[in-house]
Design goal:
The chain is an alpha+beta fold and 296 residues long. Helix content is 60%, strand content 20%. The longest helix is centred in the last third of the chain and has 72 residues.
Length: 296
């Protein structure tokens, strides 16, 4: 009987320890650094823990739900938008967002990330549609950088504050033309660039022709002036030559010497023409008379 009581006492102690451990385990919960811990009591939120660590709850009465406390990425559905000049473009974007107020998030969106993403998708798409509808296609294509994303983000405004979430950024992966319009638009853009290039080429050729014409005109003026100077110098040289000849013939001694020199020049030319070094002259030749007169 005593042995039976001992075994019974041990079993009761083991059950008590097990129940105590089970109760203690049900009372503890862990909050990680990338999550919120939401403590509910009969479905009503009675506490929210954002600091990482171990917390306590009332077993069987309180429950703990977790929500992300980090930056979240949501890939928006691909959608069509229409520009100011009635051109359709295909937008493929994603957003970065996070939960800032878990209490509001639970009250308005039932603590559901899917509900938040659906609401964000609608707000961002409406902002994108309104932003792009006020821009031409060329402006949209040239504004694929942060300027367009910033305008879309600003278009959402503070509408998300009531939901306890924050829209951090809107980024566009692709903002392109529909496949059936892309080739026609590219062809038109190439044609426009070719027309611009042809206009620049024609303008350059026109300016080049003007420069060539002006240069040719200046060259002709310079040549005419040089020709006039040359003719003037030539005339002055001829006049000086004639003056020297006149002076030479006016003086008998100079005239005789000049005639003798000219005769030597004529004799030298005759020798060069004959290919020898002997010159035969008839006594009746005017050239011979000069030499004979000089040697007489």
């Amino acid at each position: 009987m005593t042995q039976t009581k001992k075994h019974t006492g041990r079993w009761i102690a083991a059950v008590v320890v097990f129940l105590a451990l089970l109760l203690l385990n049900g009372s503890l919960y862990i909050t990680r650094s990338n999550e919120y811990a939401v403590i509910r009591q009969f479905g009503r939120v009675v506490g929210i823990r954002s600091e990482p660590g171990i917390g306590l709850r009332i077993p069987l009465i309180q429950t703990v739900d977790k929500m992300p406390n980090t930056l979240l990425l949501y890939d928006l559905p691909v959608s069509d938008v229409i520009t100011q000049d009635k051109k359709t473009m295909v937008a493929d974007s994603f957003i970065l967002w996070r939960i800032t107020d878990p209490q509001k998030f639970i009250q308005t969106l039932n603590g559901s990330v899917a509900n938040a993403e659906s609401r964000l998708s609608n707000l961002v798409y409406n902002s994108m549609k309104n932003t792009i509808s006020g821009m031409t296609q060329a402006e949209v294509i040239s504004g694929r950088s942060g300027a367009l994303a910033g305008a879309i983000r600003d278009g959402v405004g503070d509408n998300l504050d009531a939901y306890g979430v924050e829209l951090v950024a809107v980024e566009t992966k692709h903002l392109d033309l529909p496949d059936d319009n892309k080739e026609a638009v590219y062809t038109r853009m190439i044609s426009e660039r070719n027309n611009i290039a042809a206009s620049y080429t024609a303008q350059g050729e026109s300016e080049a022709q003007m420069i060539r014409s002006q240069t040719d005109k200046e060259v002709q003026i310079m040549l005419s002036a040089a020709q006039a100077d040359a003719e003037k110098l030539e005339a002055e040289g001829e006049a000086e030559y004639m003056r020297i000849l006149s002076d030479a013939y006016a003086d008998p001694e100079k005239a005789e010497f000049y005639s003798f020199v000219r005769s030597l020049d004529a004799a030298r030319a005759s020798l060069q023409g004959s290919g020898g070094n002997v010159l035969f002259l008839d006594r009746s030749s005017p050239l011979a008379e000069i030499f004979y007169n000089k040697t007489a």
